[in-house]
C-alpha cells in the first residue's frame, strides 16, 4: 500500500432510473444510465491502525454513524489504514455519496474484493466511476463511450430520504426498460432528447414522501433547465443546462431564494482507469 494516497469520490448521477422488476428476495431490478460528476467527496489514506476522521461541510451528518462505509470497505479489503473523509456531498441524497466513498477507499488501497456489492448495490458502479448502463440490482455494468459534456446543477432540499422507504412506496415494480440497444449521442442535445423519453420511476414515490423534491424540480425548470429530474432515490434533483454560464446563473438564482437548500454546479468527471 502506498504511504499516502488521495482519491476522489465523484458523485453519481442517475440520468435515468427504470425499475423493471423485483426478485423473490425483495431486491429491485434496475435499468439506469449512470454518469459521474467532478463534484464529490475526497478520501485520503495513510499508514496506521484502522480509523476514520471526518472533515468537510457535511461531516456532522456522519458523526453518529458507528460503522461508516469507508471502514467497512477497508475491512472487506483486509487492510489497515488511517482514513480521512472530506464530506462535501449531502448524506442520504441519491447521488452515491456513501457508495462513492467506499469505492474510493478500495481504489486508494489498490483492493479488488470479490463482491464489492456486499457494501451496497451502488459500490460496483462507483468503483468504475465512468458512464455505464447499469442493470440487475446494480451489478451488471455495460460501459458506454464517452458522453457529450453536460452542464449540471444539483439541488437538494436540505433533508435526507430513506432509500428503502422510497422503494416501499413504489406503486409498480415492472416498468419498461430503456431501449435496447441505446442510441448514439453525438451531442448534448441528442442525449437530452433521449433522456426526455426516459424516466426515474422513484421520483413520484419520493415526492409523495417529501413534497419539497417537487419544489426543487420546479425551481430548476423555472431557472431554464432543459431537463429536470431526481437522481437515484432522492432527494437530490438535477437540471441540465445549455451552458456552464447558464448553470452558474441558475445556481445563484436558486440558492439566493432558497437559503436552506444545497445547490452546486458541476461538469462530468473524467473516467477512472
Polypeptide structure, described:
This protein is α+β, with helices and mostly antiparallel strands and 273 residues long. The chain has one domain: Ribosomal Protein S5, domain 2. It is built from eight helices and eleven strands. It has helices spanning 69-77, 97-108, 123-128, 163-168, 188-196, 203-209, 212-222, 244-257; strands spanning 5-14, 18-22, 28-46, 51-55, 82-86, 132-136, 140-143, 151-156, 227-230, 237-241, 262-266. Strands 1, 2, 3, 4, 5, 6 and 7 form a seven-stranded mixed sheet that branches. Helix 1 packs parallel to helix 2. The longest helix is centred in the last third of the chain and has 14 residues, at 244-257. The protein is globular and about 50 Å long. The model has no long low-confidence stretch (mean pLDDT 94).
Number of helices: 8
- Alpha-carbon distance between the termini? 18 Å
Task: Provide the succession of SSEs.
Answer: EEEEHEHHEEEHHHHEEHE
The largest sheet is:
7 strands, mixed
Examine the secondary-structure arrangement and name the CATH architecture: 2-Layer Sandwich
CATH class: Alpha Beta
Which class do the helix and strand fractions yield?
A: alpha+beta
The radius of gyration computed from the alpha-carbon positions, rounded to a whole number of angstroms, is 18 Å
How many beta-strand segments? 11
The percentage of residues in β strands lies in: 25-35%
Helix content: 25-40%
Amino acid at each position: 500500500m502506498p504511504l499516502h494516497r488521495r482519491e476522489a469520490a465523484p458523485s453519481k448521477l442517475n440520468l435515468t432510473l427504470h425499475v423493471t422488476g423485483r426478485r423473490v428476495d425483495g431486491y429491485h431490478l434496475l435499468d439506469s444510465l449512470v454518469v459521474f460528476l467532478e463534484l464529490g467527496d475526497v478520501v485520503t489514506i495513510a499508514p496506521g491502525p484502522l480509523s476514520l476522521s471526518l472533515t468537510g461541510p457535511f461531516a456532522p451528518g456522519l458523526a453518529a454513524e458507528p460503522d461508516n462505509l469507508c471502514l467497512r470497505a477497508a475491512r472487506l479489503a483486509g487492510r489497515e489504514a488511517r482514513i480521512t473523509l472530506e464530506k462535501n456531498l449531502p448524506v442520504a441524497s441519491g447521488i452515491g455519496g456513501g457508495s462513492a466513498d467506499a469505492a474510493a477507499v478500495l481504489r486508494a488501497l489498490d483492493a479488488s474484493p470479490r463482491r464489492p456489492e456486499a457494501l451496497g448495490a451502488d459500490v460496483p458502479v462507483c468503483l468504475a466511476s465512468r458512464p455505464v448502463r447499469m442493470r440487475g440490482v446494480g451489478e451488471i455494468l455495460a460501459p458506454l463511450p464517452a458522453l457529450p459534456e453536460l452542464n449540471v446543477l444539483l439541488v437538494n432540499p436540505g433533508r435526507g430520504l430513506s432509500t428503502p422507504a422510497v422503494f416501499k412506496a413504489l406503486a409498480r415494480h415492472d416498468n419498461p426498460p430503456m431501449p435496447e440497444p441505446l442510441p448514439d449521442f453525438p451531442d448534448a442535445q441528442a442525449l437530452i432528447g433521449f433522456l426526455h423519453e426516459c424516466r426515474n420511476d422513484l421520483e413520484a414515490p419520493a415526492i409523495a414522501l417529501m413534497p419539497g423534491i417537487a419544489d426543487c424540480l420546479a425551481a430548476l425548470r423555472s431557472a431554464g433547465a432543459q431537463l429536470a429530474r431526481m437522481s437515484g432515490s432522492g432527494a437530490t434533483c438535477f437540471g441540465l443546462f445549455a451552458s456552464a454560464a447558464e448553470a452558474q446563473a441558475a445556481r445563484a438564482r436558486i440558492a439566493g431564494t432558497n437559503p436552506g437548500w444545497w445547490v452546486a454546479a458541476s461538469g462530468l468527471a473524467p473516467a477512472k482507469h
